[in-house]
Amino acid sequence: MGEHVVVPDPRRPPSPMEPDEPIHDPLVALAFAAARTTRIRLATGIVILPQRNPLVLAKQLASLDSLSGGRLIFGMGVGYLEPEMTAVGVPMERRGARADEYLAAMRALWEQERPSFKGEFVQFSGVNAHPRPAQHPLPVVIAGHSTAAHRRAARSGDGWYGFLLDLDQTAEQVEGLRRELARARRDISELELSVSPQGRIDADSVDAYGRLGIDRLVLVPQFGASPDEVEQFVDEDGFLAIGAEVFVNDELIGSDLLSNMGWPFAELVAYASRNSRVVPGDVLGSGTVGNGGCLGELWGRAGSLTPPPLAEGDEVRMVVEGIGELVGRVGPAVVAPPLPAARPRPRLRERV
């Protein structure tokens, strides 16, 4: 979730949206999402830190992380719309220094037993705030494409976020991050890199971003899209592949990417989660369908793949990224039910 408290009216560059386009406060929207979900991560992308009160924001973020069970990622930036900054009473000048100090003050409130802070823009002592974030530390992702943003991420971030970047732009940004990380005596592996790609993507472009070192792609539907258009975007672009690992008797047998095979995402998850059994002779691998228990691309029929067949009583555990674990034991041989055919996806509002 991004934010703009206000935008110029009438619109003028570099404003990203029309003045009558709705944009919810990200923390309110994520609190709503947290109340209706249990597993998904909740991220701000981004909060404009200099225009917030750092102690109030620290309380809001800690509360959201606590209530959501430690699912929050705090993405922050320093802002670029002068009319917005002026309207909330924060000067554009030195907004980067203000953001750096605010973040340090917030971390003091989250992490110190007896918090205190003395800086140019914020000072406090003799106070405390609970609850603390459920995560220790709360992940902080720094957004921005400038050298200053790279430097801030290298010095203070757990991750970095680039917005609407193609592959060439992403490569340039990663190189800039590497330079600043070297100056900070950190390695690129210490940062989780996220990018919202520009334009539509496919499996090949996902792989290309991965080769550049990007850990997470954050897909963005068209601004102003209707609920039906957003749902169509999720069906067509929002799910390409998820990672999965399979263990037999706690030994890692293999990992793979599970594509959607033409199914809507909700149906794929439902099928992966249903309660059925693996039978003797099944093997683990990719490329076939079949045992009637979980995602067919990982579990195939005996003789079609190289992994060893399972024996009755073996424990099989599949860890599916973003879904959870599926655990079961190989039972007596049964006839494997066929994979269900793809069918029209029910509308979201009909399932609520």
Give an account of the 3D structure.
The protein is of the alpha/beta class. The chain folds into 2 domains: 26-236, Alpha-Beta Barrel (TIM Barrel), CATH 3.20.20; 241-329, no CATH class. Helix content is 30%, strand content 19%. The chain contains 10 helices and 15 strands. It has helices at residues 26-35, 54-67, 82-87, 95-111, 147-156, 167-183, 203-211, 227-236, 265-273, 348-351, and strands spanning 42-43, 47-48, 72-77, 117-118, 123-124, 140-143, 159-165, 192-197, 216-217, 241-248, 251-259, 283-284, 299-300, 315-320, 324-329. The strands form 4 sheets. Strands 1, 2, 3, 6, 7, 8 and 9 form a 7-stranded parallel sheet that branches. A 4-stranded antiparallel sheet has the order 11-10-14-15, with no helix packed on it. Helix 5 packs across helix 6 (167-183). The longest helix is centred in the first third of the chain and has 17 residues, at 95-111.
How would you summarize what this structure contains?
By secondary structure, this protein is of the alpha/beta class. Helix content is 30%, strand content 19%. The chain is built from 10 helices and 15 strands.
Highlighted features:
single chain, 352 residues, alpha/beta, TIM Barrel, 2 domains, seven-stranded parallel sheet, four-stranded antiparallel sheet, 15 strands, 30% helix, 19% strand, disordered C terminus
Write the layout of secondary structure elements.
Elements: H1 26-35, E1 42-43, E2 47-48, H2 54-67, E3 72-77, H3 82-87, H4 95-111, E4 117-118, E5 123-124, E6 140-143, H5 147-156, E7 159-165, H6 167-183, E8 192-197, H7 203-211, E9 216-217, H8 227-236, E10 241-248, E11 251-259, H9 265-273, E12 283-284, E13 299-300, E14 315-320, E15 324-329, H10 348-351
Parallel strand pairs: 1-3, 2-3, 3-6, 6-7, 7-8, 8-9
Antiparallel strand pairs: 4-5, 10-11, 10-14, 12-13, 14-15
Helix pairs in contact: 1-2, 2-4, 5-6
